[in-house]
């Protein structure tokens, strides 16, 4: 998870290291929010967060990740011609 307030130096370092190791990764970033820690203690997942702007952004982060993985792995069906 990434905290946008920290800048992008950690992401730059991590992607460089992943490239050096030959690991695959998505370009999707999961931002770090305090509500993730609270939800963990309460046994909740992102779709169960209280409504609000931050909850929507957190939900969209995970949605983007799942869509990226689905496309990368070839899931999602075919588009009708």
| Major sheet characteristics | none
Strand-pairing-aware structural class:
mainly alpha
Order of helices and strands: HHH
Number of helices in the DSSP assignment: 3
- The low-confidence runs, each spanning 5 or more residues with pLDDT under 50, are none
β content, as a range?
under 5%
Question: How much helix is in the residues?
Answer: 40-55%
Query: Distance between the terminal alpha carbons, to the nearest Å?
Result: 39 Å
Number of strands: 0
**Average pLDDT:** 87
- The quaternary state of the protein chains shown equals single chain
Computed Rg: 15 Å
The structural domain count equals: 1
Overall body shape: globular
What this model shows, in words?
The chain is mainly α and 81 residues long. The protein has one domain. Helices cover 53% and strands 0% of the residues. It contains 3 helices and no strands. The protein has helices spanning 9-21, 34-42, 53-73. It is globular and about 40 Å long. The protein starts with 8 loop residues before the first helix and ends in an 8-residue tail after the last helix. The mean pLDDT is 87.
Secondary structure layout:
Elements: H1 9-21, H2 34-42, H3 53-73
Task: Give a quick set of tags describing it.
0% strand; globular; 81 residues; 3 helices; single chain; mainly alpha
């Amino acid at each position: 998870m990434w905290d946008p307030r920290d800048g992008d130096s950690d992401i730059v370092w991590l992607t460089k290291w992943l490239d050096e190791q030959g690991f695959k990764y998505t370009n999707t970033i999961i931002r770090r929010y305090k509500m993730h820690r609270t939800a963990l203690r309460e046994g909740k997942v992102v779709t169960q967060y209280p409504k609000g702007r931050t909850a929507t952004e957190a939900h969209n982060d995970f949605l983007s990740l799942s869509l990226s993985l689905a496309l990368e792995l070839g899931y999602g069906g075919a588009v009708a011609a």
